[in-house]
Prior knowledge:
Layout lengths: L6 E2 L2 H12 L4 E8 L7 E9 L2 E5 L11 H5 L4 E3 L2 H12 L5 E3 H7 L4
Parallel strand pairs: 1-4, 2-5, 5-6
Antiparallel strand pairs: 2-3, 3-4
Amino acid sequence: MPSSTPIIATPDALATLAERAGAAEAIGLDTEFLRETTFWPKLCVVQLTTPAGPVCVDPLALPDLAPLAAALARPVPKVLHAARQDLEVLFPLLGPVWPVFDTQVAAALAGLP
């Protein structure tokens, strides 16, 4: 089944996404990375959603993700699950991502397994 989620793989598309994310009231964020054969995690996919819908960013095609830095540093919630490793891999590329709402931590505080 073909995906209807846009793949961001060009600088122009990344700039458009950064502008849209910069206007969002909240951002959902997840990463996928490779750690098994490296000394540090290698970012492979950034999954991002705003009220405008989800997108996948291909950092292998876009080695410079700097246009996203300002959007991810804005004082609007970034919703992540198990954020520690996502933040670890994003920080060297984009700087601080804040504020963060970690659903794993929230579930634990609510008494869920």
